[in-house]
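quick one
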Amino acid sequence: MCPDALPRPVSPQHPIEHLVIVGNGMATQRLVETLVRQAAAPRRITVIGEERCPAYNRILLSPWLAGDMTHDDLRLPEIAGQAGIALSTRLGERVTRIDRARRRVLTERGEAIAYDRLVLATGSRTSLPPVPGIELAGVGGFRDLDDAEALAEAAQRGGRGLVVGGGLLGLEAAEGLRQRGMRARVLQRSERLMNRQLDATAATLLRRELEGRGLEIATGVELAALEDDGHGHVAAARLASGERLPADRVVIAAGITPNAELGREAGLACDRAIRVDAWLTTSDPAIHALGECCQVGTRTFGLVEPIWQQVEVLARHLSGEATAGFVDAPTATKLKVGGVSLYAFGPTEAAPGQEALTYHDPQQGEYRRLLLRDGRLEGAVLYGDTAMGPWLFTQARAGTRLDAARQALALGQADVEALLAEHETPLRDTDSPEKEAA
Ligand SMILES: Cc1cc2nc3c(=O)[nH]c(=O)nc-3n(C[C@H](O)[C@H](O)[C@H](O)COP(=O)(O)OP(=O)(O)OC[C@H]3O[C@@H](n4cnc5c(N)ncnc54)[C@H](O)[C@@H]3O)c2cc1C
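structure w/ flavin-adenine dinucleotide:
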């Protein structure tokens, strides 16, 4: 939560003459789309992105890797130009330095681009564990289209793929490799898959499903080293237990590191990421940061839902509108593996004062576990039939008292609504809280 989310006085210099945005990813695309619809949008917007291709839907790289989507499906709608706004995008160009004194950014091509206001939207990169062999060819992350294309090409040759990390991204990567023809194995340090989102029962159901498809899964294991094939390419992983696992390709999916270096080197206040206030302003009032490269209080970000909220705040702020600042809110998680329905939010285990309601039908592979405190929902894990997930999430966010429908809560939305209507409990309509694609 951001404690100081109060309306801030409108800055006098609007519209902004030249807004420069570094990074051409999901946050930038949405920010520009939103800005060009504002009455007092900047007169000139220049986007500088390191990736060579136009902005695309990064979220869909997982189904793309699994072969369920084409390049066309990844494409984001082109932003329509607006009268009075000059919009330009420089692709395949990395910004190497911010010259705050002269208000300009310098690029690797030796160009200097002046700004009146600067936005840093540089995202994050794969965190690489400091183990011997991590620099070998055939070892890398799953972060962008280049990574996805390299993985698809490697997988088509068959062989063994090893994914380090059994969270959302790791499982999606492993399933993609398997579907492309590799023998895929997941290494997870925790004793359960998706340990940040799932309780033990849901994690076991998920594991059984994935193993049934042919994925190999090892939990409670630690990567100790990666071994060379003698030509600088990975040949195997060595676990802390000493076990050796042959591997032709290794995907690291065990955390992300915010790309905060540009801000840090320019002297902006940084912690794990670039520190911003509730209006996404850094310690320099002419520079903003949003998305995975920013930090609000102690929080950094790895899912798009809070980033969309940041975009709304920053777009209005940049257009000179007074706005309540960004307030961090819980997010829900879905796994994008075809045929697996999973929806979760809130804590994985009941805390003191929380009670757990559970419904489990092992025959049908159905599992639902809700966490309530004083009749209000604080967490849920749904496996199998997840249709009720967004509705439950909406009620949790609205703080709806659900005591009157207690006996039906884990069964279905219609039953709950009928019972609550009998008791005249007001309900919130579902507001698509988990909407995620741009
Ligand atoms: C495979 C995959 C699946 C995902 N699935 C989901 C999901 O299901 N749900 C969900 O909510 N989130 C998902 N995410 C996370 C989501 O994609 C990110 O939260 C989101 O993309 C972050 O947006 P961003 O703009 O901050 O960073 P990014 O989208 O990463 O964009 C940052 C851009 O900045 C560029 N850049 C960095 N440094 C520089 C520089 N110095 N100069 C110029 N350009 C630079 C980078 O090349 C990149 O193009 C997924 C991520 C991946 C990789």
